[in-house]
Amino acid sequence: MNSTSIKYSILDLASVVEGDTYKETFNKSVKSAQFAEDLGYERYWFSEHHNMPSVISASTSLLIGHVAQQTKKIRVGSGGIMLPNHTTLSIAEQFGTLEAMFPGRIDLGLGRAPGTDPLTASVLRRGDQNLNYNFEFHIQELFRYFSFDNENSKVRAFPGEGANVPIYILGSSTDSAFLAAKLGLPYAFAGHFAPGQFQQAFEIYQSRFTPSQYLDKPYSMLCLSVFAAETEDEAVYHSLPQFQAIVNLLTDNRKPLCSPEYTNLENLSPELQAGVHRMTALSMIGNKEILKEKIGRIVTDLNLDEIMVYTNMFDFEAKLNSLKITAEVFQELNSST
């Protein structure tokens, strides 16, 4: 176990549950964040997605502001903003605005993936396919807009200039691990849907890390799908809709999250089974003791500083209960260090 306390946070995609309106979906995000705040969660992040009827976190900065307005101390941010979809000036202005409204509580996690299909990405980017997108250059450009050093530039971010908005690099492969290490920035890996290279990515990040003005040592974060309940059987039951959602994603049938009773996970083709397994290999499902053992081991093995928890459940009360049990897992792990 890391000698310091492991922080625990939440990733939210604003997933639509069958029968819910968009407003009800957003209301559940607010309630989850308020509940998480009381349980000691460090931050509550939204991830940018587009053209997905079952995931409505497209206007990420608006959701961040909506949740920050109705919470008091939990950090709120992006996990992440898909930078190629935006100009760096617009992101500096949006997050400068959020930081001005909610000082000391806003995070900016950045990814280079589209967060959508190629056609939608092309529309977002006005036809620019960004095949040679220079992620590092645009991150540096964003830092410049946030810096007082930009005050003599012809183009400035208001609000944004001088804003204290920590930047995190997100990744689902080893590429961003190299970049986060080079720039001396915190690194978050998307183990909740692309766990294939997680060990290699953290090894690269931690071994190659260069101290910077932002960070003097590596800060490693891993996002995991976590389904907790009083019993393992109950946790498995509540995880079924998320497994169905992955099948739906792989078959391009992106319906709202269904009830566990209406999942159809039998008789999947070998290809689908392999795809589901590939995307869910790091899912943590169980009661408190099972999760304590599994999460404790992965934190120690990877020398992690923080776990981001993604809990996509149909039953909202069961989801809140899962977040409560998960918080207890981290509190007990921290008390044993």
Strand fraction band? 5-15%
Total strand segments: 9
Globular, elongated, flat, extended or rod-shaped: what is the shape? Answer: globular
Total of DSSP H or I helical runs spanning 4+ residues: 11
Rounded to the nearest angstrom, the radius of gyration is: 19 Å
**What string, H for helix and E for strand, traces the elements in order?**
EHEHEHEHHEHEHEHHEHEH
Pfam families: Bac_luciferase
Organism: Moheibacter lacus
InterPro entries: Bact_Lucif_Oxidored, CmoO-like, Luciferase-like_dom, Luciferase-like_sf
Domain Luciferase-like: 11-254
Topology at a glance:
Elements: E1 7-12, H1 22-38, E2 43-46, H2 60-69, E3 75-82, H3 88-101, E4 106-111, H4 118-124, H5 135-146, E5 167-171, H6 175-183, E6 187-189, H7 198-208, E7 220-228, H8 232-250, H9 270-280, E8 284-286, H10 288-302, E9 306-310, H11 316-335
Parallel strand pairs: 1-2, 1-9, 2-3, 3-4, 4-5, 5-6, 6-7, 7-8, 7-9
Helix pairs in contact: 1-11, 3-5, 6-7, 8-9, 10-11
Task: Provide key terms for this protein.
TIM Barrel; alpha/beta; 337 residues; Luciferase-like monooxygenase
Please explain how this structure is put together.
- With 337 residues, the protein is α/β, with parallel strands linked by helices.
- It has a domain at 7-223 and 301-317: Luciferase-like domain (TIM Barrel).
- The chain is built from eleven helices and nine strands.
- It has helices at 22-38, 60-69, 88-101, 118-124, 135-146, 175-183, 198-208, 232-250, 270-280, 288-302, 316-335; strands at 7-12, 43-46, 75-82, 106-111, 167-171, 187-189, 220-228, 284-286, 306-310.
- It has an eight-stranded parallel barrel, surrounded by eight helices.
- Helix 1 (22-38) links the parallel strand 1 and strand 2.
- It is globular.
